[in-house]
Write a structure and sequence with these properties.
The complex is a heterotrimer of chains A (109), B (264) and C (261). Chain B has 264 residues and is of the alpha/beta class. Chain B is built from 10 helices and 10 strands. In chain B, a hairpin with a 2-residue loop joins strand 4 and strand 5. In chain C, helix 3 runs antiparallel to helix 4, helix 3 runs parallel beside helix 6 and helix 8 runs antiparallel to helix 9. The chains are: A alpha/beta (109), B alpha/beta (264), C mainly alpha (261).
């Protein structure tokens, strides 16, 4: 199960906080919630907080790539916070470090 | 008593067309480690693998997965066990009628509710892991044997399995690609905590990746342990295998002689 | 002598075993209808293979069979000075017998053999084992869609065959040999009753089950009995599948006809 918490500090800026297990059975929910914010609400600046979420398989990396693609296509910016070591390792295993380089923000909010 | 081993094989005997292939095979596969099953061709490695993935019924002996006997699994239990495993077959076993991308998407499409776009990204990621991201639209028949094998590995990884079974990963590969595959297997163990079981006859790569080695000879476990322990073994047959000496002694001179004679 | 009895016994055991296995194969295939993955697109794909791609060869066969029927029928009927019955002779023969049987034979030769070979190759290349290991039901994944597709395609092809055949007979009888067009069509309308049509449909449905059952079964188990998996086993399975399905089409045709007439 995964729960999402949406907060919008400004109309352009949205923060999505996920809470729970982020795997291939919940990935479609993360994807839907995030893409809705970008496509329907037109948020230019999306921040995804995964401090309380645990990524356990590569489907979450795939979903993050997809969100990143969508945000960039709309000329927006994506920020990822609270990425744990395991997810970072999975990203580097998929050789996606460079793509995520300026997306991942190390410090927690 | 609970053991640290994820899979435990106890006294496994196997028969193939009336001939005994495995004799009292007993060993354990520790979780989150790389276990290499090694031996000359025809020593029963692949048969053992087929037992481990539940394709061949266990007749005598037991295979315990998390302490449960694989042989007593119902169909549903066997299915849930198989969702935890990924298997690379010797020939890759790709579906001929589909491109590589579609091949890798098969388990994802059947077992998950992921969106098509997510699945597409995942398949490209997996193909990239095995160094085939440029070939996603190729059909298996357009690829070389080694490439098909790597694509098969990508498909085995599609579901991020807990246990990965690999049959002869480096046969038919050039040394550089083979080394890359070895690296990948180790990375998978590191990153995803995967339990990897490799069946191979290649000494060099076996000692490079193994945490535990099971050396087999004519259906029996000949040596078992960490690579260093196996290397220090004083057993004649083990040394012969390690030093790549040709088989000099005849297996059974009488039966050989008999088969030369005309039978009426 | 003992050797003879022993091998006879072994043969009998093997045959009985394979009959049982065929039954179980059928049950698993039926169960596959209710098991993931979805069947819609695979079924469409297989209908294209079994049906659409057979249209040309079946049209060709049907046209020439109809023409021969027109020729032979005219020759025979003219002996009794009743050429006017040509329409009913051609139509009845086609709808009740030739249409279903010819179509089934052509499909088993064209599509059935290909299906056996395809599944046989999947067997020898361990693709079926791979499906098993991915926790995908191989029956639901590859056999059931083909069953459904064949069950849909064959009756439609039979109808197509009937129509083309009747026009073939018309072309010869009316255009070439000078039977009046009115008499020909009147014969067709007055003699063909609903029962003939649905007998043809039932036949083609039974044939389609036989073809696809035998062909998929033979492919699925190619090499399993021998315990060796090579190209030779696939080619033997393909030959077996075509021969056995052709024979069973003809035998079951006789049985159905004798029951329904």
């Amino acid at each position: 199960m995964i729960k999402s918490l949406i907060s919008c500090p400004s109309p352009e800026h949205a923060v999505l906080e996920f809470n729970g297990l982020f795997d291939r059975s919940t990935a479609h929910k993360v994807r839907r919630d995030s893409l809705k914010l970008v496509q329907k609400q037109g948020s230019r600046e999306l921040e995804i907080d995964l401090t309380n979420a645990r990524c356990i398989d590569t489907s979450c990396v795939a979903v993050l790539v997809e969100i990143l693609n969508t945000v960039r296509k709309q000329g927006g910016k994506l920020k990822l916070t609270g990425i744990d070591d395991n997810t970072a390792r999975m990203i580097s295993l998929s050789q996606l470090d460079e793509i995520f380089e300026d997306v991942i923000v190390a410090e927690k909010k | 008593m609970p053991s640290a081993d994820l899979i435990e094989v106890r006294g496994l005997k196997s028969f193939y067309r009336g001939r005994q292939v495995l004799f009292d095979v007993t060993f354990g596969i520790p979780s989150h480690q790389v276990t290499v099953i090694m031996g000359a061709s025809g020593c029963g490695k692949t048969t053992l693998l087929r037992h481990l993935i539940g394709l061949k019924c266990t007749g005598q002996g037991q295979i315990l997965v998390d302490g449960e006997d694989l042989g007593s699994f119902s169909e549903g239990l066997l299915k849930s066990y198989r969702r935890r495993i990924g298997v690379l077959f010797q020939g890759g076993a790709l579906f001929n009628s589909m491109s590589l991308r579609e091949n890798i998407a098969v388990p994802l499409k059947v077992h998950t509710k992921l969106a098509d776009e997510t699945i597409r990204i995942m398949t490209v990621m997996k193909l990239n892991m095995v160094g085939l991201s440029d070939f996603s639209e190729f059909m298996p028949s357009q690829l070389s044997g080694g490439m098909r094998k790597r694509a098969g590995l990508a498909r085995a990884l599609a579901m991020d399995p807990e246990i990965l079974f690999v049959d002869e990963p480096s046969s038919g590969l050039d040394p550089i690609t083979a080394a890359g595959l070895d690296r990948l297997l180790l990375d998978l163990r590191e990153t995803l905590g995967m339990t990897v079981v490799v069946v191979t006859h290649e000494l060099e790569s076996a000692f490079k990746i193994a945490d535990r080695i099971v050396m087999m000879d004519k259906g029996r476990v000949m040596a078992l342990g960490a690579p260093d322990e196996v290397r220090r073994s004083t057993d004649e047959r083990v040394l012969q295998f390690l030093n790549r000496e040709a088989d000099t002694h005849m297996i059974n001179i009488d039966s050989y002689y008999e088969s030369l004679l005309d039978k009426e | 002598m003992v050797q003879l009895i022993r091998s006879l016994g072994a043969y009998g055991m093997r045959e009985i075993l394979s009959v049982g296995r065929m039954g179980i194969f059928f049950l698993y295939t039926m169960r596959g209808m209710f098991v993931a993955p979805g069947k819609f697109w695979p079924v469409v794909k297989h209908i294209e293979f079994i049906g659409t791609k057979s249209i040309f060869v079946i049209g060709f066969t049907a046209a020439f069979s109809g023409m021969v029927l027109g020729l032979q029928g005219y020759y025979t009927l003219s002996k009794f000075a009743s050429e006017g019955l040509l329409g009913s002779a051609v139509a009845l023969t086609l709808i009740r017998e030739l249409g279903p049987v010819l179509t089934a034979l052509m499909v088993s030769g064209r599509a059935g053999s290909a299906i056996t070979a395809e599944i046989g190759i999947m067997r020898i290349e361990e693709q079926i084992d791979a499906l098993d290991c991915m926790a995908i039901d191989p029956y639901a994944y590859m056999i059931t869609p083909r069953f459904i597709a064949c069950l849909i395609a064959l009756p439609l092809l039979t109808a197509f065959c009937d129509v083309v055949g009747i026009f073939g007979g018309y072309a010869i009888g009316v255009d070439l040999l000078g039977v009046s067009a009115g008499a020909f069509w009147d014969g067709v309308y007055s003699s063909v009753v609903w029962k003939d049509v649905y007998m043809g449909i039932i036949k083609s449905a039974v044939f389609s089950v036989l073809i696809i059952w035998i062909c998929t079964y033979k492919g699925f188990y190619s090499g399993v009995d021998e315990g060796s998996f090579g190209p030779e086993q696939v080619s033997r399975a393909t030959t077996d599948a075509v021969v056995i399905s052709s024979i069973s089409i003809l035998v079951s045709d006789y049985i159905i006809t004798s029951i329904m007439l």
